[in-house]
Amino acid sequence: MEELGKSILVLRIGLYSENHGFVQNMMYDSHYGDFFLMAPNDTASVPHWWDSAEPLWITAEKKGLRSALYWWDGCQVEIRGRKPTFCRKYKYVGYSWPTVNEDTQEALLTALQLFENNEIQLVQIYYEPVDFYGHKFGPNSIERKKAVKDIDSLLDLAQREMASRGLLNKVNMVVLSDHGMTSTDSRGLSVINLNQIIDMADIRYMVYYGATSMLLPHDGKLEK
């Protein structure tokens, strides 16, 4: 799953975490007293989480440019009073999406048709399998290598279609990745057991787990 708080928002907005407000995929806001859990959870559509910064598609819409987003989390939210012209909500590959490549191909071809007809000026398409299979099976796994080949084929199709439609000099195609990966060996990992360091009775909320964890202590327990 994309690391929403760390880097994908940087690509969407152009600001770092200390300015755009997202610091993880799961967060707690003490001001509003609620949790953010990234899509497909409903909390990902609560507007106050998104109001700290302005995504690219909102800026485009404010400038009179029509935008279409496919599977980009946040496009379903009204941000600063606006939404993209078209939004296909984020869909998690991990919940079974056997037609992800076919659906992405359909999105690419539809986007090019919209460009050709001058119906849209900005399109953003999120393709998750490379990230998902890398997290699940490792960056050098057969599954991830296949996902890389699949997106390579889709990008090749997009370029050939752009050429046949006379769009090569009219449409800029930008390919982005929000983070890299490296293989790990469980035998060499240093595991920190928080239960051996912290009295969990002092903790009000523990949000997220794994490589990082966010702890909110009860009142009066911070210094302890």
Automatic annotation (TrEMBL):
Belongs to the nucleotide pyrophosphatase/phosphodiesterase family. One of its GO terms (molecular function) is glycerophosphocholine cholinephosphodiesterase activity. It is found in: Cell membrane. Signal peptide: none annotated. Choline-specific glycerophosphodiesterase that hydrolyzes glycerophosphocholine (GPC) and lysophosphatidylcholine (LPC) and contributes to supplying choline to the cells. Has a preference for LPC with short (12:0 and 14:0) or polyunsaturated (18:2 and 20:4) fatty acids. In vitro, hydrolyzes only choline-containing lysophospholipids, such as sphingosylphosphorylcholine (SPC), platelet-activating factor (PAF) and lysoPAF, but not other lysophospholipids. It catalyses: a 1-acyl-sn-glycero-3-phosphocholine + H2O = a 1-acyl-sn-glycerol + phosphocholine + H(+); 1-(5Z,8Z,11Z,14Z-eicosatetraenoyl)-sn-glycero-3-phosphocholine + H2O = 1-(5Z,8Z,11Z,14Z-eicosatetraenoyl)-sn-glycerol + phosphocholine + H(+); sn-glycerol 3-phosphocholine + H2O = phosphocholine + glycerol + H(+); glycero-2-phosphocholine + H2O = phosphocholine + glycerol + H(+). Its main location: membrane. It is a lipid-anchor; GPI-anchor. It is an enzyme of class 3 (hydrolase). This is glycerophosphocholine cholinephosphodiesterase. The gene is enpp6. It comes from Nephila pilipes. The keyword Iron does not apply.
